[in-house]
Amino acid sequence: MIFMPPSADLQESSEDTDLSSSDDDELLHFPAFDDELDIESHQSSASGDSSNMSEEQPHRIEVDEAEEEIMFTIPNTLQQLRMNLLENYSPTQLPPSLPFHIQTLSVSEKHSLMHYIAWARSNGTVLAYAMHAKVLQNVSGVEILSLHSVRKLVKRLTQLNVKQVEICPESCIAYTGEFSELRYCPYIRDGKICNQPRFKKPKTPSARDKPAAQMMCLPIMETIRAMFANKETASLLRHRDKCLQQALHIVATARRYSDFGDSQVHIHHYKDMGLFRDSRDIALSISTDGAQLTMKKKSDTWIVLISLLNLPAEMRIKSGNTIIAFATPGPNPPGLIESFLYPLFVEMAKASEGIWTWDAVESSYFLNRACICMALGDMLGSAKLNGMAGHTATYGDRFSMVKAARSSKKKGSRALYYPMSPPDNDNYNPGRPIYQLDKLPMRNENHYWETIEKLGKTEQKRARAIITKETGISRMPLCAASPAFCHPNFFPIDPFHLIYENCMAFLWDLWTSLSPTSDPIHLHADLACEFGKAVTNAIQTLPPAFCGPVRDPFLKRQSQYKIYEWMALLHWYILPIGIELGFQPAVLQNFSKFFQIIEYSMKIRNWSHPELTMLHVRIRDFLTEFETLYIGNNPENISRARLCIFQLIHIPQHIMWNGSIRLGSQATVERAIGEMGHKIRSKKSPFANLANIIYERELVKLLLLYYPHLNLHTPSKPKEPGPFQKIRILKKEQQFGQEYHTQLQMICNLLDEDSDSDSEDDGWHRWGKMCLHNGYVLSSKLSERNRKPSDRSSRYFEVLHI
């Protein structure tokens, strides 16, 4: 089978795009998909030692898009996987003969459904549904269907039929794919074969097999079908194509990157892979993460969430626009997560061939195709999906072929760290190259598929382990079955965890606990304690709209310190308080560069090539200074060059690949876990409760797409921007020396007004609150004085100068 690669950089050479800024002589080299750009290539050998890639001299080549037709072979294992997932499916030649029709509701059905929607959204109990139904029926005189009957009605109207997947009772595997015919679990956990039976012991010899455990899996395309049946959402689903078409009409060097629709990867999907030719084709991302449902007993679950990349960025992240495909029913975390994902990929394989769908905008059927375009996860979650060796491997960076380094010569010490130019390199890491941040050996797709093919032909476990050690690739992932799969950008960086939970937490630990007191970077306990107290004292100045309350990091670092707390320390507290308390100037200077990088990277904006060049230079300078400051000439300090710090260098490339670094964020799935977790009532059966909540959530969503008039939830009308809550001006406050008089004098001086007239009779009025244009309410010190004391204040605000 012949396959057109994502770009010239995904063949034997790794393409480095020249993105030099007009104001800077520095060159930023990116592996790019744009054939119009210059390419700098790193030759690599799939059969040799991959560490030698960076030692070879790069050369310049020109690529002519009209003549370029480089192809490579896809392994037979991938072809077979895609055929297995399709299950002989192919769409019919003609669409359904009858137009799509939404069933008319009776008065009783309408009232029952409205009651059901209100009950589901409020997370009501079964008893609450029955009692409120009686009240509504007595008042209106209209029959309100029972909960059982209304659920049957909703299921019939939405056609949302769940699939029950048989799984191991210990959550090791799902009996799908290669495990579909097994009767006992083959998974090895803690060195022992699970061997749990798939079915319960039959009560009689003739009884049918009953699964010992099952998992609910929701169909994704039914939700997309409902969205196209609604004119409003059907129009919104065309947003991706609008961005794509605009990008296609701009010269590559002048392109700007803001979202998935105008990203380099998506342009490649369209131009080189022949995907997304219809404006209504659907691009999806999957996110997965684990959670503990109850704190008092083992209750691990993994949630898989689907985001629609067709929607505008500000809409796709809203909980009402995401789809939870399933949650594993614990109590253990899943052993082989891909076996649980298999039904989802079966559905998506069929969707990539096309499913006849009614379009409410054009009032006709069309063959809708959908593809998974990326898989998101934190470092551990992504490792379960991407088939790479993981962050502890010799080649643990999934985007480059930079070889990890050791920080010790002791027997058994492992190469886990990523300095560019480590001290005493020949002694501690003989044979490891010295890398340059401007010319990193990036992974490429040709080398990837050669490695996958080699792994497929190698049966000996030891030989496979050697290949994995030399490449960082351990197996072909299930995600490779997606027609939109390309390596390595299919598994983006998650800035949510990388920046805040990993980098920020690591820097704090370096200052406080991972460095000796004699080290210049060390933050002494008394100073760290003073800093922590200053943070808690400053919390009142952080409005509730920004984030939750921030605890003392000196006292609460080990007490599940939240990501938003690290975020607050990074963006608002460390620099100003650190300067005031006298932190080491060199540490603060280096941290200020880190702060500037994050502030700049996380902005919602259209990125140009020169801006990405500037961002790369900033990151390069930070990392170079970081090595000098934190490692110096001590080889034992190489352990401070962790992978999370090194991966910051990939941020500009990810912006170019995906349009925004935010696209890889796990914040959406983290929020979904929190929302679902707070609704669980049953301590005895939390997983069954969670499955019902997820199913009910999707039923209500589809019902409102087909019948929007059933939605009784109308957002409250926002207040008009301006002041309100008038506060009387007392005569004693108008006297000289009073706070009001002083404030008024300052206002008058600013406005060049006469300050002799300061009463309400002279036209002066005082207000306690003001509604801002974004809907937030800004309080005053005086208005907050009249209410119950609070740890948080809304009289502090952030001013954005535009």
List keywords for this structure.
802 residues
Strand content: 5-15%
Provide the structure class.
Answer: alpha+beta
Total strand count, please? 19
The biggest sheet amounts to: 4 strands, antiparallel
Q: What Rg do the Cα atoms give?
A: 30 Å
Mean pLDDT figure: 86
In terms of topology, how is this protein built?
Layout: E1 2-3, E2 16-18, E3 29-30, E4 39-41, E5 59-61, E6 72-73, H1 76-86, H2 107-121, H3 126-140, H4 147-158, E7 163-166, E8 188-189, E9 192-193, E10 214-217, H5 221-228, H6 231-236, H7 239-248, H8 264-271, E11 282-292, E12 300-308, H9 313-316, E13 323-327, H10 337-353, E14 355-359, E15 364-368, E16 370-376, H11 379-386, H12 425-428, H13 445-457, H14 461-471, H15 495-512, H16 525-538, H17 553-556, H18 563-581, H19 585-601, H20 609-631, H21 643-646, H22 651-658, H23 667-679, H24 686-706, E17 722-726, H25 739-751, E18 767-771, E19 777-779, H26 781-785
Parallel strand pairs: 11-16
Antiparallel strand pairs: 1-6, 2-3, 2-4, 4-5, 7-10, 8-9, 11-12, 12-13, 14-15, 17-18, 18-19
Descriptive account of the structure:
The chain is an alpha+beta fold and 802 residues long. It is 38% helix and 10% strand. It contains 26 helices and 19 strands. A hairpin with a 4-residue loop joins β14 and β15. α4 packs across α24, α15 packs across α18 and α16 crosses α18. The longest helix has 23 residues.
Summarize the structure.
With 802 residues, this protein is an alpha+beta fold.
